[in-house]
Amino acid sequence: MDNFQLRFAGTGGQGMMLIGDLMAYYYGIIADKQIVLLKSYGPEARGGACRSELIVDEEECYPAVTCPDLLLAMSEQSYHLYTEDIDQDTIILVDSDLVKDADQSHPHTYQVPLTAIAKETTGKTICANIVALGVMTKLLKIAPEEMLEVLKTKLPARILEINLQAFQAGYEVAL
Asked: Among residues 128, 99, 97, which one has the least CA distance to residue 113?
């Protein structure tokens, strides 16, 4: 894939900015691609719609997502706000516990109980974003050991082990 666009959308506090940072590190440093990372927050500090968008290319790229190749939607609000420019080829990953009315007719919609898996695996719902990262690693055909290296490089030691567990759980459910 020469050029592709990723959108990670949710509610403030769900870790969408962290996912954008982790994926940007993977594609920009490890995969040695050209990237543009954009972040958008609602006016609320927590609880409002937010998104991070990543554009990946072999060459310099246009700095705006025009049609995401992958959309992660971690809330009902973000699903409805950020699906306006998808097409039939867009991969849509939704947290099935939090997005109840995802379009069932879309051919590439994956409904995964990301929050429930995080709670079951780690005891913490806050790790749902890293469960999603595990699922996306499989969907995007990224070598899991490379994404694990990103986590080990970018996350503080005090939260690393729990996030490695969350990542593994997400990757396994995607298999």
From this structure: 97
| Total-model pTM | 0.93
Say yes or no to pLDDT of 61 above 90.
Answer: no
What gap in Å lies between CA 90 and CA 128, rounded to an integer? 21
* E-assigned strand segments in 12-155: 34-41, 49-57, 70-73, 91-95, 109-112
Could you tell me the residue ranges of all domains in the chain? 4-174
Tokens of 4: 């592709």
Fold classified for 4-174: Pyruvate-ferredoxin Oxidoreductase; domain 3 (3.40.920)
- Residues ≥6 apart with Cβ < 8 Å to 165: 121, 122, 127
Check: CB of residue 59 under 8 Å from CB of residue 80: no
CA distance linking residue 119 with residue 139, whole number of Å:
22
- Cβ neighbours for 96, distance < 8 A, ≥ 6 positions apart: 102, 111, 112, 113, 114
Region label for 141, one of left (φ > 0), alpha (ψ between -120 and 50) or beta (otherwise): left
